[in-house]
Specification:
single chain; alpha/beta; 7 helices; 13 strands; hydrolase activity; PGAP5/Cdc1/Ted1; transmembrane helix; Metallo-depent_PP-like; transmembrane
């Protein structure tokens, strides 16, 4: 049957140490509240069978102390509560375990993430679908899947679909790790994050070095379009498909934020983005609405002050008779 997947990218719940402004507590509260409300709406709308968190769950996951991490983990669970029926998958991002070039991979953070979020090499969803964790940060993946061969050694990989999930895009700047993953596990589709925008790429396996990502549902004309992909066609032609899911956090300095929604029915993939409101515009409007009466009130007080304390008095002269 149809498998519905909700994709959550780069929530990056805020921490306590990076932002030291006096309003940091209020910013954290508003960000948490925004994420929680829209996540609840997305889950209610999609009714997912699988929920995939594509990394960068926390902003300070790599460097946080054990005490702070415990607090962030509790907050994360309150914002994104576990689903009673859906399979929930968590993979790490560079803000969770390091390894993005600016920060080296943190072995302690890596072990801690696996302990708390039960990260695994792969998840068998049903007889027709397996999801593989292709970790470009740690360069770890499952080396092979015995289900791809029958008892005689014949390739039967076309009997089920294989999804790659990765925080960092898999096809971008391909390495030997990329080629090995594609050759061994033959993905039908790849879901990734990290770039904070909605994009996709389709390219033949032999031309990976020339891959270019294009916007997906990023303009008003196609914002709510449901895109359809024939995964059997991609397998037959050895064409690779990667979809980059936009961030769901308004703190990532991009105007368009939302959740990915994928539905797989047989070999047909339908995908769209559930866009959420532009929170900064809302906050600016709140400031303006609050500022207008405050400014008017101050002007009135200033006017009253001048009336009562100004030493100037009008001069009255007698009119000539």
């Amino acid at each position: 049957g149809c498998v519905k997947i909700l994709l959550v990218a780069d929530p990056q719940i805020l921490g306590k140490t990076y932002d030291t402004h006096f309003y940091a507590g209020l910013a954290n509260y508003d960000s948490d509240r925004y994420l929680a409300w829209y996540y609840e709406q997305a889950v209610e709308h999609v009714q997912p069978d699988v929920i995939i968190f594509l990394g960068d769950l926390m902003d300070e996951g790599t460097d946080s102390t054990e005490i702070h991490f415990e607090e962030y983990y509790t907050r994360f669970g309150a914002i994104f509560p576990t689903h009673p029926t859906a399979k929930v998958i968590y993979i790490p991002g560079d803000n969770d375990i390091g390894g993005d070039g600016r920060q080296p991979l943190n072995p302690i953070a890596k072990r801690r993430f696996r302990q708390y979020f039960s990260e695994r090499p792969a998840w068998v969803i049903n007889d027709n679908l397996t999801i593989y964790n292709i970790n470009r940060i740690t360069l770890e993946m499952t080396l092979n899947d015995p289900r791809m061969l029958d008892s005689t050694g014949t390739d039967v990989s076309d009997r089920y679909l294989r999804i790659f999930v990765s925080h960092i895009p898999v096809l971008d700047v391909p390495s030997s790790f990329t080629y090995t993953a594609i050759h061994n596990l033959k993905p039908n589709v790849i879901f990734s994050a990290h770039l904070h925008v909605s994009q996709f790429a389709r390219i033949h396996r032999s031309r990976l070095k020339t891959v270019q990502y294009k916007p997906l549902s990023q303009d008003k004309r196609t914002a709510y379009k449901v895109h359809s992909f024939d995964l059997s066609y991609h397998q037959d032609t050895q064409e690779l498909l990667e979809i980059i899911v936009p961030t769901c956090s308004y703190r990532m300095s991009v105007p368009d934020i939302g959740y990915g929604y994928a539905a797989i029915d047989g070999t047909t993939l339908k995908y769209t983005v559930l866009w959420t409101t532009r929170r900064f515009y809302q906050l600016i409007s709140y400031v303006v609405i609050l500022a207008v009466p405050v400014v008017l009130g101050l002007l009135y007080v200033f006017y009253k002050f001048l009336r009562e304390h100004c030493g100037c008095r009008p001069r009255y002269e007698r009119l000539p008779k």
